[in-house]
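haha ok so turns out i had the wrong file open the whole time. this is the CORRECT one, sorry everyone. sequence first:
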Amino acid sequence: MSFYVHADLDAFYASVEQLDRSEYRGKPVIVGGLPGDRRSVVSAASYEARACGVHSAMPIVQAYKLCPGGIYLRGNMKRYREKSEEVMAVFRDFSPEVQQLSVDEAFLDITGTEKLFGPPEQLARRLKAEVRSRTGLTVSAGLASNKYVAKIASGMSKPDGLFIVRPGGEEEFMLGLPVTKIWGAGGKTQEEFEKHGITSCADLHRLSREILISIFGKAFGAFLYHAVRGEAAETFETERGTQSMSAERTFPRDLYDEFEIETQLFTICSELMFRLLHTKWQSRTVFVKIRYGDDFSTESARETSRRPVSTLNELYDRISALFRKKWKQGRGVRLIGAGLGSLEERDLQGDLFNGRSEKERRLEKSILAINDKFPNAVKRGRSWLNN
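then structure:
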């Protein structure tokens, strides 16, 4: 039986600010911009701010109307990444396979760890306690037999919660949810749900696989069929036979704020790394795309290094540096894209133990040993070991 924990840091950016500044604790903290920054949006809001109705992606101007007494900050991505690395280090102490999805969340494959940490529920509670003890931050966790259900479960008892879906209870858990809880079903899909009168996972469950495919297409229809049954479901398809992979975001308004742009870049890099690690590919080439809002002109740049990208942080550093070389500061950005080019088959033997620290070497060796015992445990790669 496989077991996965999805760990999600609570109100991460705002929580880091409250951790670093004791005078902010217990007060509404809004990260993303100052009240006078008319073009900025909320990147994170503490739970005190959320009680006022403030939420992520809300314009700062609107947030200030709802919460004029809040503490408004532009944010510090460097500091947030430092704390993220501390948390990921804790995660790696509990599992040799940590799949970092973004700066504030990760999957842990805890299959086969019972002899070290006890039953899965006990491990999850110890994990939460260790994160708080070593980093000062709280994490909400979901525990389930597959990653997809664990991801959704982690959002069920925030903040600082633990939600457990017992083996055999995955389908019942999903059937009790509204479609808004389906991970991977974004705004356009939600509009399609509404158009067809679909409001719950139970509504989707009643539709055959063929009907779902006819409405949502072959890949996404099949994904929904498995997801509402609580079965393992990936939200990204493996890209095979391609020379590159990319992701981009188009914004409803121009972005000028550096922190907001950094946040979007990190989100894009997180998606790319997640997809890359589900394939057999590696890449030495990164590229960026920038579209400006004033005249919709588009610029792009690419850069190739000697060694393949191996971690999310490394990818972000390279993408961010390339973006800054190309961006004409002061011009509003309407679209940001990034990608990995010249994909090549990953060379496990040639890449291992090359220029890594002794600690990383030991960790990689332990992963290979586990892979011998559990053949599918680390098939997607080793690349987050440096995170």
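Residues 142 and 150 are 5 Å apart (CA to CA).
again sry for the mixup
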